[in-house]
User: Which sequence fits this backbone?
């Protein structure tokens, strides 16, 4: 029942830690970066209500993971979450963090105005950059956890990006100005999946899925700042739901 509980003030603090690193990348006279900072601030504020709510696990298994004994979880801060009622995640003090899986991302052929397909395809260089960003994000989020390959008391955490596709702008879109009413500003929607396993017997403890949006123009670099912020945010919230404190 308490596998994903987290005090609201800690969630807010962890999310705000992402901001100084981003501000440090922006020039004080760069209007575009100032708008990005405003977008991030609004995104964090709008996300606090959901992220700071106490998760509630349903009273019976359901959905596609019912056969695995996973129960749907509401108010997790993620788009979807399923977990074992007896997962006992706060009891784990060792982690085995797997390399971010970027090997099979679904990227449709739909073109986005103002960008080239190569701007947001997963090139080997971009794959390596994203994996490095995820490693750094998780190292920071789980800095107080001992690292171990497997065994009793070890929580294995696997993550993968599953889809990058054109999306719709929202008030929490990262990497651009705030959307106007009726705006058709081009954005990308990024989907990810996280799976938690017991390191001793390999039993799946939880499956989490989430999606975020970011400016498509921000994908023109090998390691986009917007994507890095997105990975930092996921890592922080994942730690919140795992640790329970």
Assistant:
């Amino acid at each position: 029942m308490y596998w994903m509980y987290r005090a609201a003030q800690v969630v807010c603090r962890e999310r705000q830690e992402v901001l100084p690193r981003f501000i440090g990348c922006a020039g004080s006279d760069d209007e575009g970066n100032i708008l990005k900072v405003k977008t991030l601030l609004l995104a964090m504020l709008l996300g606090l209500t959901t992220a700071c709510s106490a998760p509630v696990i349903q009273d019976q298994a359901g959905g596609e993971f019912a056969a695995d004994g996973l129960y749907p979880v509401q108010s997790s801060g993620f788009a979807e979450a399923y977990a074992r009622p007896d997962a006992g995640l706060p009891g784990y003090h060792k982690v085995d963090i797997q390399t971010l899986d970027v090997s099979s991302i679904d990227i449709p052929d739909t073109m986005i105005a103002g960008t080239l397909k190569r701007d947001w395809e997963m090139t080997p260089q971009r794959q390596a950059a994203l994996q490095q960003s995820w490693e750094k994000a998780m190292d920071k989020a789980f800095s107080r956890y001992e690292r171990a390959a497997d065994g009793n008391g070890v929580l294995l955490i696997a993550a993968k990006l599953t889809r990058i596709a054109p999306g719709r702008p929202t008030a929490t879109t990262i990497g651009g100005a705030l959307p106007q009413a009726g705006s058709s500003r081009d954005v990308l929607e990024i989907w990810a999946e996280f799976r938690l396993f017991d390191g001793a017997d390999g039993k799946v403890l939880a499956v989490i899925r989430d999606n975020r949006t970011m400016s498509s123009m921000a994908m023109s670099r090998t390691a986009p700042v917007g994507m890095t912020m997105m990975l930092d945010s996921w890592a922080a919230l994942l730690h919140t739901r795992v640790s329970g404190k």
Remarks:
- Strands lie at 56-57, 71-74, 80-83, 94-97, 146-147, 154-167, 187-198, 204-215.
